[in-house]
Amino acid sequence: MTDQIFTYITHKNGVADDTAMELAVAARKINPDAAVVAIVTGSGESLDAVCQQAAKMYPTVWKLADDALAYPNADVIRQALASVLPEKAMVLVAHDTFGMDLSPGLSVKLGAAFISDVVAIDGLGDGKLTIVRQEYGGQVSTHVAADISAGVVINIRPGVFQPEGDAAAAGEVVDKSGEMDLGTAKRRFLEIVEAEVGDVDITKSDVLVSVGRGIEDEDNLEVAFDLAKAMGADVSCSRPIVDAKWMEKSRQVGTSGQTVKPKVYIAAGISGSFQHLGGLKGNPFIVAINKNPKAPIFQVADVGIEADILDFLPELTEAVEAL
Questions:
Q1: 78: domain CATH number?
Q2: How does DSSP classify residue 201?
């Protein structure tokens, strides 16, 4: 049903995730003439607030309200979505930790195809959707033609389909709660464990110099700290640096670390996996420095520099200090 496309909107503390607008852009890439419907689940005033935000981006918003939907339990939300979506529906979901939990099972319930980690859309025709996804840690781009005649659930990588211009005019919020069937959940929500804040709270930083495997050795971290000092920035990192115990976890950016919203993000020696990019919000200006020209980070960067960070960062520091 490509004349109607559904998107699932995640939110926290009454604020829609940045991917809400990105999914709308992706839907228009698939079919510019399709009627795009956003679906928001939750309860209480925070749900109403998110629905109003979504209505500024979408012509139609479906509201699914129930106390059981107050927390992001994919088992419950999957059943709720399956009960209200029409046959052969096309559903777009952000490819983040929650989306990876929700989408495969949703496609099974709908009897639909499932495509994960989509980074580009080639075209639609003859009942097939051709998309681009990445394999082998982003080293290979795969062009996939999916049969969507029975519907499809698509996970869209965050940060790829960036919105242009302002949000659309206010749309209509339709309460579909009465049509919803939550079924019986096999798991229950326990608690949310917030990431610890260390000596530096990177979630409040306007400028971040973030390092990954390309730093090669713990002793080399000094070049990142020198640049950060010259720029008035803070230093963050990707997961391999934390796993090596070179930096504390409170400095890790990503789905298993901190979610940050800097104005400028310098990704030094970071490949750009979706797990890492999932921690970047707010559409920052991204400067990517990597000696691998095929690194996925270059696909989302505003400026890409092919260079060894151990050579480039000291030169950049000198240039900044000279200014």
A1: 3.40.50.620
A2: -
Distance in angstroms (rounded) separating the CA atoms of residues 170 and 53: 9
In 10 A of CB 82, how many CB atoms? 20
Task: Identify the domain containing residue 280 by its residue range.
Answer: 202-322
Residue numbers of the chain with a pLDDT score lower than 70: 1, 137-138, 164-169, 195-198
Indicate the pTM of the whole model.
Answer: 0.78
**Assigned domain for 273 exists:** yes
pLDDT value, residue 138: 66
Mark whether 214 and 127 lie in a shared domain. Answer: no
Half-sphere CA count of 88, side-chain side, radius 13 A: 10
Residue 187 lies in a domain: no
Between β-strands 113-125 and 128-135, what pairing exists: parallel, antiparallel or unpaired?
A: antiparallel
Same domain, 173 and 246: no
Total domains present in the chain: 2
Give me the CATH number covering residue 276.
3.40.50.1220
Interatomic CA distance for residues 271 and 292, integer angstroms? 8
Q: In the chain, what are the helix, strand and coil shares in percent, each to the nearest 5?
A: 35, 30, 35
- DSSP string for residues in 38-105: EEEEE-HHHHHHHHHHHTTT-SEEEEEE-GGGSS--HHHHHHHHHHHSPTT-EEEEE-SHHHHHHHHH
